[in-house]
Write a structure and sequence with these properties.
It is a single chain. The protein is of the alpha+beta class and 164 residues long. Helix content is 59%, strand content 21%. It has 2 domains: 79 residues; 54 residues, Roll (Nucleotide Exchange Factor Grpe, Chain A, domain 2). The strands form 2 sheets. A 3-stranded antiparallel β-sheet has the order 1-4-5. A hairpin with a 2-residue loop joins β4 and β5. The longest helix is centred in the middle third of the chain and has 55 residues. The radius of gyration is 37 Å and the shape is elongated. 8% of the residues are buried.
């Protein structure tokens, strides 16, 4: 090995060391910059988590709303069966279909609201007639049944109210 080669090697090593030190300096960031990046990352992670939760709730509410819409489309059928059952002579098939429809509504968590003698509640009753003078209002007649779907009112009961 001659002196020229060793001098060249030293020059190469020193230039490599300088390049590495520059690279290390570029890779190092200040503490405040690190805290800002960390804060941005945590905010982004929280936003994404909130987005996932919100989209799950929206999916659930869309499913519930579509099911409620389907149940609402059954109400004319339910009303017609009730009219048919109120007749003097009722066919056995009509009773059977009515009971099947009732069991279907029960399996879908649909509950009837509004019956004679209940206290009048404007949240679940729609009063179409009022009679009497008094402080307490009671349901005198149910003209059309109301329904709750999973605890939410989807059709108010149409009633006549009597004050006592």
């Amino acid at each position: 090995m001659n002196k020229e080669e060793s001098s060249d090697d030293l020059d190469n090593h020193s230039s490599e060391e300088i390049d590495e030190s520059k690279k290390i300096e570029e890779d190092n960031i200040s503490l405040s910059e690190y805290e800002k990046i960390k804060d941005d990352y945590l905010r982004l992670a929280a936003d994404f988590d909130n987005y996932k939760k919100r989209s799950e709730k929206e999916k659930e509410s869309i499913g519930t709303a579509s099911m409620a819409y389907f149940v609402e489309s059954l109400f004319p059928l339910v009303d017609n069966f009730e009219i048919a059952l109120s007749q003097d002579e009722v066919n056995k098939e009509i009773e059977t279909f009515s009971s099947l429809l009732t069991s279907l509504l029960e399996s879908l968590q649909v509950e009837e609201v509004g019956s004679v003698g209940d206290d009048f509640d404007p949240n679940i009753h729609e009063a179409v007639e009022h009679s009497g003078e008094g402080d307490t209002q009671k349901v005198e007649t149910v003209l059309r049944k109301g329904y709750l779907f999973q605890g939410n009112l989807i059709r108010p009961a149409m009633v006549k109210v009597k004050s006592e």
